[in-house]
Amino acid sequence: MIMFNLAEDFYLLALDGEKGSLSGQISMTVPYLTAGAILNDLGLRDRIHLENGLVKVTGPAVTEDPVLDRAWEVIAQSGPLRSPGKWVRLFAKQYKEFQELIVTRLLEHRVVKREEKRILGIFPVKRYPLRRKRYKRELVRQVRSAILRNRKPDERMRGMIRLIHLSGLISRIFPREDQRKAKEKVQALLKEENLSANAQELESTLSKILERAVAAGKTQRAILHSGG
């Protein structure tokens, strides 16, 4: 099975495989959640750590991973150290660049295909429907298993479960009859503290930041739909 990074797998889970787009509430929050996934992945690979609450790079770039290498490069060249919250906001603003890197990898591995359409026959848009549906099916199976089984998920899967929880993707990943149980299991899993000290500190910090960002995204969406 192809190994993508956390941000790429999260993008696939959030993607409407038939329409080839990120629709609904998720489209308002995915830039922040993608930023969180990138920082989480860099932390899990020991490429960043927190020093007095600020993000500092460690070791070389990830290499052969355009998304993580680009993020590592930006952090390494930034000069003064910044908090995780500032990096989440900065990477969210650069989401289009990271999305392009994510999509390019998925296209190279033929997991998605590119389609160009026009809204109202005028405005060009790009869509990325699934080409190889087997990969996403296997990814969904792994997530379901990690949440419902009684064993503790590894750190990477724990990061994915938190992204799923914050994004509200439970309703897309689980059938209706399993959603209540899945939500209860997720709440219990995320309360467990079984990470390394650096991973625990980074996850706790990112969780608080992302919760605020997601809440702000929901509020913005509600205002737009109310016409306010």
General description of the model:
This protein is mainly alpha-helical. It has a single domain, classed as yeast vps74-n-term truncation variant domain like (yeast vps74-n-term truncation variant fold). Helices cover 62% and strands 8% of the residues. The chain contains 10 helices and 4 strands, in the order ααββαααββααααα. Strand 3 and strand 4 form a beta hairpin. The mean pLDDT is 86.
H/E element sequence: HHEEHHHEEHHHHH
Read across the widest sheet, the strand sequence of neighbours is 1-2
The overall number of domains is 1
Count the beta strands.
4
What are the main properties of this structure?
228 residues, mainly alpha, yeast vps74-n-term truncation variant fold, two-stranded antiparallel ribbon, 10 helices, 8% strand, globular
Summarize the structure.
The protein is 62% helix and 8% strand. It is built from ten helices and four strands, in the order H-H-E-E-H-H-H-E-E-H-H-H-H-H.
